[in-house]
């Protein structure tokens, strides 16, 4: 009696009777329909990502997804979200908010502007390199020609040092700049410069023949190495140190007309004076280079 009352109470309070077969039939149908709908959703074709052209407002890179080999060009630097949208700039890493979608016409306009800007910067760098080369070559030519005049070096040594070092000076300043140099013409012009110096001192020598007849190892020439350090590695005191050593040899070869202590003091005084002179010269050279870079 109590059990019947419980069943009746449940039946009267529930909108459906769980003991009724239609209830369970409906539940099975609902579950089947739910599974069918989920399967249909999975089988629906995903929305294809529409490729576009973007401008990174941070670094100025134009990102053209429509270009052939686009992904390969950036070697895996492109990151995308689940919908296939680019999420960062492959160049500077800027986030998606800095990527502005642009038209193909706008892209062409930007590329032309960027090309002109790049060409202008390259021309500026080229002009700076040329001026730096001219400055150092004139300075080197002047230094070596004075040594010839003072009988410190032979005419042949002058030509060989200048020709070898002038090439290294050009290499230094053209390392990151395309100067499009014709090296045969360059060699001819440098030999002509040497010949002008030779003729001005009335030496009966030809620069070309002197260069061809030089058989010694230039890398063993101490003056060449000192000048190399000065012009290529910016060592302000390398030439002064070379001259100091040469002066010591010169004194040692002469008769002992001065006491050792006096001779040493004189040499040291000359060395310090020459160091100061070369330091001022190097600093003036550096200043000229700096002014070209910031002008």
Tell me about this structure:
The protein is built from 10 helices and 3 strands, in the order ααββαβααααααα. With 295 residues, the protein is mainly α. It has 3 domains: 52 residues; 111 residues, no CATH class; 48 residues. α5 runs antiparallel to α6. The radius of gyration is 41 Å and the shape is elongated. The protein starts with a helix and ends with a helix. The relative contact order is 0.06. The N terminus is likely disordered.
SSE string: HHEEHEHHHHHHH
When the domains are counted, the total is 3
The helix content, as a percent range, equals: 55-70%
Number of strands: 3
Structural class: mainly alpha
Overall radius of gyration: 41 Å
Low-confidence stretches: 1-14
**Number of alpha- plus pi-helical segments:** 10
Spatially, the strands of the biggest sheet line up as: 2-1-3
Shape: elongated
Query: Sheet with the most strands?
Result: 3 strands, antiparallel
Question: What is the residue-mean pLDDT, rounded to a whole number?
Answer: 84
Percentage of β-strand residues: under 5%
N→C terminal distance: 109 Å
Q: What does this entry show, briefly?
A:
This protein is mainly alpha-helical.
